[in-house]
Specification:
CATH architecture of the largest domain: 3-Layer(bab) Sandwich
Strand content: 25-35%
Mean pLDDT: 78
Shape: globular
CATH topology of the largest domain: Phage tail protein beta-alpha-beta fold
Order of helices and strands: EEEHEEEHEEEEHHHEEEHEEE
Strand order of the largest sheet: 7-8-4-14-15
Largest sheet: 5 strands, mixed
CATH superfamily of the largest domain: Baseplate protein-like domains
Low-confidence stretches: 1-31, 164-169, 228-234
């Protein structure tokens, strides 16, 4: 599987109390109860900001959409994220304290985190989604790269989309049974980011990420919405 590290850092530990504060951007939805929900103690050790956020979304039970450009690996070090407990707002503040290049906002119950205040153009692609009924996350990803507007954008910008990044982590080993959620999504006009929001919430994954290479590099776009640990049945 292709791995892309966003912000590999030397091993560093951030201890954050529930009273920590940092300068961030908050969207119009900041008054919703989501941000005041309680979050327990969190300990995460990962190489990339994306991976840390993926686990925060799971630990805090919050939907997160992440947009970033990748940075070259330097030294291969990992980061340790420590949160001593508090609210959703405070764990997000703790994240941007450790990764100051990012900003967060909360919009209609989804936390969006972007790099240096910039939305990736691909996230704002306007599409007409045909809708799906009674599908799994893997079935959606099987056809995601065939969305006409997405294909047109990738072609116009000479970008590649390595879909195998998705498939390898949705693989089910022989003999393992998984309780895989099935869901439906209405059709209609929507942006790519809004579609990913819906898929994240309805699939129960609660996370998506779009990672793009820097403009001076060959354009590669990775779109992630990965469930690392499915419930296993006997």
């Amino acid at each position: 599987m292709l791995k892309r590290y966003l912000l590999p850092l030397p091993l560093a530990i951030l201890m954050v109390s529930s009273h920590a504060r940092s300068a961030i951007y908050r969207g119009p939805g900041q008054a919703t109860g989501l941000l005041d929900n309680k979050v327990g103690k969190i300990h995460i050790e990962e190489y990339a900001a994306r991976d840390i956020l993926h686990k925060i979304s799971r630990e805090a039970h919050i939907p997160i959409g992440f947009q970033s450009v990748e940075q070259p690996a330097k030294g291969g070090g990992s980061s340790v994220f420590e949160f001593l407990g508090g609210t959703v707002r405070e764990v997000l503040d703790a994240f941007v304290s450790q990764f100051p290049g990012y900003q967060w906002s909360e919009d209609d119950g989804v936390v969006h985190i972007i790099w240096h205040g910039t939305h990736l153009p691909i996230a704002d692609i306007a599409i007409f989604y045909p809708g799906v009924e009674d599908v799994t996350l893997g079935e959606i990803w099987g056809h995601f790269g065939e969305i006409p507007e997405l294909k047109a954008w990738l072609a116009a910008n000479n970008c590649s989309y390595p879909a195998f990044v998705i498939g390898s982590e949705l693989y089910t080993p022989p003999g393992v049974k998984k309780q895989i959620p099935r869901f439906s999504i209405d059709g209609g006009p929507i942006t790519l980011a809004q579609l990913l929001d819906q898929i994240a919430i309805k699939s129960g994954e609660n996370f998506w990420a779009i990672v793009q290479t820097f403009p001076e590099e060959s354009c590669v776009v990775d779109i992630y919405m990965l469930r690392e640990h499915w419930p296993v049945t006997n």
